[in-house]
Records
---
Amino acid sequence: MALQDLCGFKDSFLNSRWNFPASHRMAQEDTSMLFGKRTRDISSRGLSWSNSESPLHLYIPAAEYLSESPIQFGQINPNTAPYHITPLHQDSTLPFLSFPPGFPPSSSPSVPLPFPMSHGTTTLAFMFQGGVIAAADTRSSCNGLVACPASQKILPVHSHLVGTTSGTSADCALWKRILARELRLYQLRHGRRLSTAGAAKLLAHMLHPFKGTELCVAATLCGWDGGEVETCPLDRLYYVCSDGTRLQGALFSVGSGSPYAYSVLDGGVRWGLTVEEAISLAREAVYRATHRDAYSGNCVDVYHITSHGWTRRDREELREERLWRKVGQNLVLNLHLSCFL
Amino acid sequence: TMFATQVYGDNGKMKEYHYTGPVEHRFSPYSFNGGTVLAVAGEDFAIVASDTRLSEGYSIHSRDSPKCYKLTDTTVIGCSGFHGDCLTLTKIIDARLKMYKHSNNKCMTSGAIAAMLSTILYGRRFFPYYVYNIIGGLDEEGKGAVYSFDPVGSYQRDTYKAGGSASAMLQPLLDNQIGFKNMEGVQHLPLNQEKAVQLVKDVFISAAERDVYTGDALRICIVTKDGIKEETVPLRKD
């Protein structure tokens, strides 16, 4: 198992059954934290993760070692070792940290936090009589540079659930993957799809241990529960945020461009919209936001969720739209002028 | 959405020249070692190129430290940023490749390596590997593929991507020359291998002119179905 130890790679099956029979105690400099799904209980000595299905192994650095002077850095001393390769032998020699005081080390400045940006994007979602519309721009920015002008911010989770993402790209992509996996497992175990409300609750609870850390995920989950006739028509749209918010609503817009999008949407969203009107309203809202917000731009993606699942409109380049509108504006101006003359 | 940024790397770059008052210094586990990496995907080939300068602050540690690493016969990875993390990350990837080969009796495909790297990087979400990765190789159908990453594991497939210290200078040039963006009335010709290699050389010469951390030599790895060919081209050494 030398290779696996080097990588910090633990096959979760092997790990839970034979390496961690009873409890996995978190040491002071604890490194790999097994993220158990639901069945964890905080025992008196620390944490025991009895559920072997860990979606993710995360390395959490403890603040103390990073403030050590370089002279002691890296020496193999149980109290100051930055990471230990075999966590089996920790037992009595190492003091442990009782959860949660030392974890997460969010307030310590030892590992510099990423650039504190607001969610630089514009995403929106609203529901109406014909289903749910989700729209987003496609610009991924990084500290003033456009890292990707063609990113996908609306990620399908399964055939009837779509999530818009905002925040850190890596966090959103990974947590959506984890959510998709957990929903699929639920469907296989219980024979039915988890509702949108349930998916939102699941995501919120999965993100809860990371509250206070740098993790930044602000997603709106848009889905359709049930078959042709909905069991609960109001229950299609949820907003979940990594700071713990979980809200049900009829209209949400997330990101730095959301004020601009909200103003357009509040003026136009009604329950009785037709599908074409709703789509063009969503496009207009994103277009206006990209016009005014520096961190939003490039193209717009629109998804429409109905009882048959989600459908996606082709991505549209907004630059041509802008040029076209300018031409239109000039024509109108010329007409006005010619009227007056 | 935001990619994780370069905030970690301000150590190692040139510091303030004038005394601005007392400053508390903390030990930082990161350092910035410079370097630029570039990858281009063609119809049946992929090119991964990097400069070979290893620098830190005002010094050059080495003029012969290429940043492209061969992973399999069809995949090359370019890693720039903090050299210590680059080395560890490539060791971990090599080990994971071996494990996959031993348990599945086949080599990992480019797409699989990209997905695996994403989870490796995200496993260190709270103490990231300070590395900007770009993977170039051939996918299962033999077409060129480029996957670009940010330090915490967000990735996507592209046709071309520049990463590292001169990435902000090179990416617009690639958008224009390979993506034909922002040009009016131009024919979109597909890129053949000779033109792509020449373009990569020209682009790095420009980068070496304007970025202090890029220079010394250029190492180009060309991945085709016949294997991986390496070429070295000298660049400015000042």
---
Amino acid sequence: MSQAGRRSGSRGKGHHILIKGGKIVNDDQSFYADIYVEDGLIKQIGEHLIVPGGTRTIDAHGQLVIPGGIDVHTRLQAPTMGMNSADGFFQGTRAALAGGTTMIIDHVCPDAGSSLLAAYEQWRNRADSQACCDYSLSMDIPRWHESLREELEALVKDKGVNSFLVFMAYKDKLQCTDSQMYEIFCAIRDLGAIAQVHAENGDIIEEEQKRMLELGITGPEGHVLSHPEEVEAEAVFRAITIARQANCPLYVTKIMSRGAADVLAQAKRKGAVVYGEPITASLGTDGSHYWSRNWAKAAAFVTSPPVSPDPSTAEHLSTLLSSGDLHVTGSAHCTFTTAQKAVGKDNFTLIPEGTNGVEERMAIVWEKCVVPGKMDENDFVAVTSTNAAKIFNCYPRKGRVAVGSDADLVLWNPKATKIISAKTHHSNVEYNIFEGTECHGVPTLVISQGRVVLEDGNLCVTQGSGRFIPRKTFPDFVYKRIKARNRLAEVHGVPRGMYDGPVHEVPASVRTAAPRVAPCAGKAAAPPVRNLHQSGFSLSGSQADDHIARRTAQKIMAPPGGRSNITSLS
Amino acid sequence: MSYQGKKSIPHITSDRLLIKGGRIINDDHSFYADLYLEDGLIKQIGENLIVPGGVKTIEANGRMVIPGGIDVNTYLQKPYQGMTAVDDFYQGTKAALAGGTTMIIDHVLPEPGTSLLTSFEKWHEAADTKSCCDYALHVDITSWYDGIREELEVLVQDKGVNSFQVYMAYKDLYQMSDSQLYEAFTFLKSLGAVILVHAENGDLIAQEQKRILEMGITGPEGHALSRPEELEAEAVFRAITIASRINCPVYITKVMSKSAADIIAQARKRGPLVFGEPITASLGTDGTHYWSKNWAKAAAFVTSPPLSPDPTTPDHLNSLLACGDLQVTGSGHCPYSTAQKAIGKDNFTMIPEGVNGIEERMTVVWDKAVATGKMDESQFVAVTSTNAAKIFNLYPRKGRIAVGSDADVVIWDPDKVKTITAKSHKSAIEYNIFEGMECHGAPLVVISQGKIVFEDGNLHVNKGMGRFIPRKPFPEYLYQRIKIRNKVGGLQGVSRGMYDGPVYEIPATPKYATPAPSTKSSPAKNQPPPIRNLHQSNFSLSGAQIDDNNPRRTGHRIVAPPGGRSNITSLG
């Protein structure tokens, strides 16, 4: 609908904008000041600003001026079974802007076996030509092999990608083993990137899917029954364990259930560097709709991990988001039309996965967290943009209203009300999973790259105007701690003398571990070895060093005495 | 050391025994009564019993009379690199009896690829000829092969085995994938078996071992460093998740760390049937000794999962044992001589794994838990015998002092103080990992099968006198709840009309998920995804739906709606 307006809007005067009388909200403080925007950047903040003539003035009295939202998780080009999602980069970013989100981080999902770099180029081409807001890319790693190391390095060093997603689900397709994850995490840590993980136990899911289909359950409720939340929690627990072993920062995408969120919160308490991302769907609705009698409606909710059927989940997640146990919000926007979803009409495992949410994200977070008083407007900014910018290393260019930052701004009206409906949304799907939700707080005006793109409910966007935002490695917000721990984590062996006692001789044939000792039960044949070594050699009894409790930290210093011989100690 | 005494057993005649003036302790209550034993069974309990003449009488003088201990986890015949542990069934069960344990459940560990049945027979025969106390056998499932189901069925139905262990560690050797675990759990549940899990993440251990070796750490401390307790906790969490999906009981062997124990405790509060078994080593000592400068001493502690280097671990585990979050105690007894351990002198991954503990188990639990006031005597009986008997379906034959139960009885002296040392222990190894520990509480008299086998510090045992105790499947202690949960957990789908809207047609070659890069990499500007508009037809189902107002759920139980089948388009 905005195709016509996109050239005319925000040309001459649009480049110089003065926002007057608004309350600027950052994640740390709020204050009243005017903002002068020029050339896509915030040039001045203060009162009584001196601005050139011809500057357009926007009155922001009674409104909040917040940094544009960053949606950390979208899949606008997700290829599934030969279909592309209903919202491409154009449609998707348009919806984003309509909801007050001025930057997205999209996931590149290469085909198994194809090159990561090729997939990256493919995504860049599409996004460059279609996106209407700034974007960045995360890379999925569908199948790990050693040669990917170089590609990862190239992506990190030359291509501005600093986050990589591994899958613990989708058995035989995308799923990684624990060993592979460990290797990937180590590689990512060395490169200074963020390890993201889709956390669900794919092995169990597959078995459960089989079981559901055998029980004759083929509808969308089978999806949620075969993806129970324990399976999500288990994978989160495992991912954190592996990341801790590798000393790699971990970012769990799509926190959909209470169990998963609690596991993550507990791990943080034990010191893990881990971040959690609830999405619009998990914050704004629940999974009771999988049991809807309307197939198309139920199918619209199908995503993985599924929206939890426990109706208290959304409440719980918004509480954890407010308390800082969860950090950022994404949307995982990946929509399919009903006809596309209907590919799985006789078998829920074939329903393409994904829900909408890129447009609704900001409003839902406001409605669920700020309106009931769980968080204040500063926290709201933190979880919708600032934290994301810090974690993904585009701070303070994004995620902050400050001189020199990108002019991605949103005028937020906390008094306005809007009802979410598929009739008015900007996505291409027939169903909106938040249908009928009333939101108190809406973006009234959105500025992206210094241009007004949403005003009075009208979008004026330019296809292809979005820029790729490259991101650097080793974000301080994440890696300062990791680096310090790396230094501390060195372990040393105990300097001992050579063991010079008797050694049991392993029969030469035994390397195969299967000792055919005596398949016909060798009666009472005393194990042939024992007495051989009941020699006079004895080290029992208390030892010279028994009283020295050597530990707590894993750092062992070389004792002053230097090398010693074992037999001299007994 | 007792080789002399074993043939000259005069007490073999004392088939009839009267224990006078003891305080009988069961897991539920204690009382003063006399006990009359005959033919290996408890025949009478009470005061002023009428007994035949010529009965040997033991004066208990108010001391405690408890059911003999059951050690649920021993490896007295564990093969490693062509050798076996130094304590075989004879040596091991002798040590057990000396410590007040009158029954062991040993693990049959088949080499991967060999049949479970053959291995079972091998163990059965070895134990029958050597064991001095009653025993039962767990069978470890070291690989999941074709035909294993039939063998498992035979073991459960005909051989008296009702517990099987699976491994989440030992990559490329015993380890099973999550899918296999799911399959194995499902099948074992259908047999009514107890599922034991060795819980450690083998994949990560393999990675860590590589890393530690690359760093040049080859000593026993590498064993602890490469198996941090997080990996144990992770596997416990995963095992519980899988079991709770299948609704089967799961039993974690060798709980060695605080975090693993905490996971079990938390899970129990949420409902899954989980049982945890700390062992003598984890209750009595800690893993600081891996850093001992004495290689042989450090190596003696090598077992998996390792002892936690956190010195507060034993205290924590004892507390959980006392409050019921952990239920039974084993020993994991599987000692190797220093020379055997020395196979791994240049590489800690080669050190054979196993520690002693069969003899020390009862006294360590008493000293750490009862003498410190964490648990009472009844709870002591529960965690050393009764709970084990219930879980493994031996109750009330074992684990209780009651008329008709086996005459496995221990007279326990809570005041006796004994220092554990390798010089006086019954095991054949040079090192005792509890060396120098002063323990309060020790058995005075041990009676096995109605015969006095330990008295005044002397053992009177016969090689091969132990009997195999067959166990039936579906122990009520576990399966009563499982059966009810099975009934209430039934699932049903939603009965809907057929979806009759448009269906997207998948291109004939769905493997090309994304359009081939070659065609697209030349930036085809503004080209909309070829499919999208195709379905922006007038077909629309947006807006509030007829059934929006009745949220259908909470339990997983969906009842077919009274309206019966409906058609999707009529709902829009």
---
Amino acid sequence: MGFESANNNSILSKLAINEEHGENSPYFDGWKAYDNDPFHPLKHPNGVIQMGLAENQLCFDLTEEWIKKNPKASICSTEGIKSFKAIANFQDYHGLPEFRRAIAKFMEKTRGGRVTFDPDRVVMAGGATGANETIIFCLADSGDAFLVPSPYYSAFNRDLRWRTGVELIPIHCESCNNFQITTKAVKEAYENAQKANIKVKGLILTNPSNPLGTTLDEDTLKSLLNFTNQHNIHLVCDEIYTATVFDTPQFVSIAEVLNDNETNYCNKDLVHIVYSLSKDMGLPGFRIGIVYSFNDAVVNCARKMSSFGLISTQTQHFLAAMLSDEKFVANYLAESAKRLAKRHKYFTNGLLEVGIKCLKSNAGLFCWMDLRPLLRESTFDSEMSLWRVIINEVKLNVSPGSSFDCQEPGFFRVCFANMDDETVDIALSRIRRFVGVKRSGDESNAVEKKQQWKKNNLRLSFSKRMYDESVLSPLSSPIPHSPQVR
Amino acid sequence: MTNSPTKTTTISSGGATSAMRVIVPLQGVVQGRGGLFLGSVIPCALFYFWQLYLKRNRNRRPSSNNNNAESGSSGSTHLPDVSSGSGLQRVHSRILLSPKGTSGQSQVSVRANSVISKQIDSSPCFVGLNKASQDPYDEFSNPDGVIQLGLDENKLSLDLVQEWLAENVSRWMMAEDLSISGIATYQPFDGLLELKVAVAGFMSQAVDNSVSFSPSQMVLTGGATPALEILSFCLADPGNAFLVPSPYYPEDVKWRTGVEIIPVPCRSADNFSLSIDALDRAFNQAKKRGLKVRGVIISNPSNPVGNMFSRETLYNLLDFATEKNIHVISNEILAGSSYGGEEFVSIAEIIDSEDFDRNRVHIVYGLSKDLSLPGFRVGAIYTCNENVLAVVKKLTRFSSISVPTQHLLIQMLSDAKFVQQFIKRNRERLRRMYSLFVSGLKQLGIECTKSSGGFYCWADMSRLIRSYNEKGEIELWDNLLNVAKINATPGSSCHCVEPGWFRLCFTTLSEKDISTVMRRIQKVLETRKSLS
């Protein structure tokens, strides 16, 4: 049969065959390890703890409480069922008007009421993933490029590039100035692209940053806006972590900068925001992605594209009710920030106790760990070795900096908001043990240190083989996760 | 060469004398003086300034200067000044100057530009839908409103679903394992396994258990629209083509994938069933045009005609696909909405029973039609091709089903008794409405093709159109919309090669409304008879 012969693959598209989805990269090995041996406090206490998933589980109790008190919001309740017919039948890609109003209002609240958002510019997409892809489809053609400050969310390589054919050009940020974006670096990236004859259509950044957990200050935002405006390229701000800001400095949205006297001459048609409720409200399962553009044509185009990723009207209806409850929203945002601050402090202090520093951050569901002192050598190979040790020996799935395109080896992103307090303690104790072992190894002389390292590796060899087997066998996990989610 | 700037400024000054001033240098060009450069600069400059003039006289929003496209790269060498961002208001000239697309500093993508051109918004589909939504008919509050017959939604059986919900909601809400973390957290993007099982079960019921669909061959998506697009991305490269029997209801498959759709005309003489000869002809024509055909996309039951593929046609189609080594995508989202006398045959049944290569057949399904839940965005891709399955699983991350909706549907579709009853009663209601509607049309002298599935009938109004072409058809459509105040879908919107056919959906009506519709159509008929 023609299909079943060796050229089965040739009958698929190039997109289907290429590796641009990135899921065969070594960075998914951590996920595979977790899938094969997931931690459970009772059933698998020695399993791998998931610290590579940026999920906000700290305020589920608040959401649950609200659901119980507001049965009308759900069409699956005796109170809410009256709305069922209208909701189930509604498939207009404009979305329910009350949903758009609620989202616009929520976006205002999370920015402290300092800006207003127009509900008619709120466009739906299939999660933040879909929203990011949609905006790129609207702004760039295959072969065009977007600048992106690095380190950046690794799935951008797939979400922004795979189906769109658009390239990403990193703007390198360095640890010496805490990974801040410098005008010099932006200019350099842009000019290099020009020299290579690559057409840059825009700049996309995540603010608050993933993986750094930092927010951009007003001056940086202004200079970025000036830069993009000057070069007539788009500026896309992925602000999905807005409400995860738990400390000063206060978050500044690009929407605020647009209104500022110094920059309000800038062309609004070049500015776009991507938003979602996956992080801020801890509802990634709901698949709520929002494209908010100041450009009418882009709103129009994105709206038509939203047919490919509309949000279930049941979900729209529910959220319209929940997000319109001002008292609940205000309380939720305050409480969420409080709990994130507490968890962040507890975790980073726990790391500090064993000498592990994190980049000072004020937002996000993760921290940017500096494990450079633990590297054998300052190389990426060393980083990968250390990472494999952390997965297989320490049994924590963390994400290596190189997967975020970090140019300096030794940094790791570790998520702390997707677990309860007890699990955090277990994770910290495992880290303490590991660092303790490493330290005692380091204290002996250089030769012995190498032998100790090899010993550690030898100890790993059994589990390594298991791990290798799991890599070689087809990925058939009991909980098929899409790997490397934020 | 040095004369050229003067000449261009002369041209831009306007007025009657400019005409002479244009002709003289052009004569020079023709006679060989001035050369190729002038010969290209002058017409291009003329054209450019004409566009500028047109644009200035159009009502445009001030913020839209960034929406204008650059002249294409193939033509831009003649207009170096224009393309360097001189601040001139550029006209949307993409379509006119360069069909290939834009380069230089175009602000948005080619895809976005195609939407800006508003060609989509002025199509009869959109205009009709808009008008109907602005002035919707209501028996009591707006009896003169527009009756919507252009939306293929099924409202006939929604009450059955609501009934189920009412009966089961309290029991379901008590379920212990339905905690917030099960609903709110990240779940597999290709759908919960329990929902795959439930949808597979529903699909099997929809085809009267002639096939047993396996959940492991399924990937769930946020609706049938993304399902079709995802398959297209997977099976074809930009510039490749799919053959689609026409008339077909336009789907947005082309837009982002860059894949061409080649209609394969079906004719009334064949009751609009697919002829393999026509398929072969279309395939060869595509080949001559240098287009690589990657597959055939069929809808079964079809939209807009509502007929079903016979077993024989499906065999022949698969033979054809095997011979040409291409894919077959079967859009079976109306499988459960078949009501005709003959059985519905899914392509899955054919590949199950016969020795065809399963790897080339892919089925698109969804709950928007068969379960009347378009708002919930539930679609599925069903394929036995493991390579396709693996890719499609990854692609569905861009359009996943909202988890609370997944849980609701797991409960609903796992209720086998409900599913069975629903499909049965829905079919009965569809059958009844169809026969009432079609006989009403027959009494007016309007014949319909025999439909066996779907929410509409395919009516032959060719005797009523003034000129036997698309223009005549649109004129009748307009009459129906504005005089009779019914929104029907003209065949030209569905790429029908024979003018005068209209799709009329009857599933948003009550039985009482049918007589109102017929009365209104009769009014138009009488007006046309009296004028002819």
---
Amino acid sequence: CSALRPNRNNNIFLNTDLENQFKAFREKAADAMPGSDWTPFEKNRSLPPERADIVIVGGGVVGWSIAYWLKQKEMIRDGVRVLVVERDPTYSQASTVLSAGGIRQQFSLPENIHLSMISADFMRNINEHLSVLNEDPVDLQFNHSGYLFLASEKVAHIMEENYRTQRYAGAKVSLLSTTQLKEKCPWINTDGVVLASYGLENEGWFDPWMLLNAFRRKAISMGVYQCFGEVTGFRYTTNTMTTAEGDTVDFRRIKYANVQMPNSLEYQPVECAIVVNAAGAFSGKVAEMMGIGLGLKDTIAGIPLPVEPRKRFIYVVHCPNGPGLDTPFLVDYSGVYFRREGLGGNYIAGMSPEEEEEPETNNLEVDHQFFQKIWPHLAHRVPAFECLKVTSAWAGFYDYNTFDQNGIVGMHPLVNNMFFATGFSGHGLQHSPAVGRAMAELILDGGFKTLDLSAFSFKRIMTKEPMLERNIV
Amino acid sequence: MASRFPILCICLSPFSLSMFCVSVCQLMQRSCRQVTLLAAPSRYWSSIPVAPPSLQPRLLLFLSQRFHDIETILSWSSWFKNRGLRQKNFFYGYTQQNYGDNIAAAYYILSLKGGFRFAGQSEWFRSDRRGKFNWDFMNHRDTSIEEVDVSNTLINYTGLENLVKQRGLCTLSVSGCAEVDDWFLSRLHIFQDTLEELDISNCPRISVGGLAALQKLRGLRRLDVSSLPRLQNPGLVAILLEEMLPHCHVTAIGYDHSLIYSHTQTDG
């Protein structure tokens, strides 16, 4: 091996070759002791480990839920090394913490209903699952006020069909006529409402930050590695095969995920076996790093991941004479929703804008003029809201699936070891415990065991058969 | 947080067996991973300032934070407690199949050391302190239960499944039950037409979110929400409950409504 030659200044420690030689020595030592992280030299502690079995891109509630369930399901202690990479330690732009935090079973697809029911069961027994010895118990501050959907004449038949699907799946929902609605909620103006659907159990809202921290604390106590950094690229091998017609198809396998440190050019290539894309609103960018969507237009390689960020606003209003403790999470047929916040007469309200009026997504600035579109609908539905005052507002991203507004769960046909758990379009938080378990089963057991989410696979995007959810908010 | 590696404590002689325990602990860790409840369920009172705990819990906390095997042994004890709770609240499916819903519900209440009264009768069936009870209730297969008193028992959400078939239930008292939480209250909508009196005082796990679920009980006439430790604003909550249930009389005693707290700092 090359000797340490002193340089012209007669000081070997200024020799830049020394760093490379130390690195070569480290790599040789690592090869001699496979699977071990031990290094005699101090590295930058904020770097992720050099080797991990499963790298989860995205530290939101879905990412941490997958990390927890992977550790929960491993057969032997330290069986899988899981690394969760999150770009922003303050979670300032993460959809999880900016969410309204509602959970409901009133969907039109049975898979969505089952996901919500399983997640509600998980949250009911959350201390059995996620409590850590000698730490405080998890308190989600779950408000069991239920969701109330209102339907006009045009959509009443859809609501009835959805009610049948929901009851068949086991959700506890009840339909209310106009008179029953007026009796239950005297503060509602039932003008234009023909039918209402109210969730009796397992519906309401909770604190998303508490759920995220509960998953994170429990996963870290079980040995999940956490790294704050951004995945900027992948190193992969390509296997080119030709079809019967003579077209070439590239199958890619990720070998390394490059994790770049915040505010620095330093990056660590993490050698990994499986990468899970749970990056939420930014999953499209992560998928592009693997070349998904950058192929020829008519091939599978040309189909991009149809997830893009969509900005949604939530306004906090104060109304002293508003509805009281029994306010459900009310969703009107015009798209406006509101719910009670606390006990002091505060409510949060929002509306999904039309396709043509989608706001810009390069920042999280709030458009206060948009509230002028929400207010008339609110005041029409609840006359007490005619005199309200907007106290505050915030904006967050939906990981909007432009194809059919439902999640994408499963593997990609062309990238052999990348899994997706994204595109939930506003339902990621309420489905996160169930999706985490399904992904862990898919990765560790090879298939879905408790809940079959194969309807949410990438296949429907390739065959262009959308599974539309009729009841999105 | 305890270290990931089992640390042999050589200095303390009472734990000289830990070298043997380590391998056993590692084996048992897998099965106990499923349920790890807290060793201190009384933390729910943590918003009220309490005196520092005595020597033994502090010593256990210190040891469990330093030694992995102590942590495992403590998590076993909470696992056993949880298992005991689940066994108390099993679904009495066999009894339901063979003797009917009413007998199953009656047997469940008596095994919890609670009491009940059948519809149309005036005497209560109770089990005494040692768990013994009169088996006469087996003669009334077809009478449903009208009043249930399971105060100071271990009833929880899964145990309530045994009572859901009693659609004529008028009075329910779960005062002082440590396992009754908001999800239990949200399940009470089953009795929405007939329940007239509900007593949930002294339940340490109930908070405002669960009280909001009581809106579905339209037939409720008397509600007792006294001395709920987790309520931050008891006076306001009592007023909001009265607004929410206009025909119901709400009792909320046992709170300190004074404007000046007794443990304030001397100046701002």
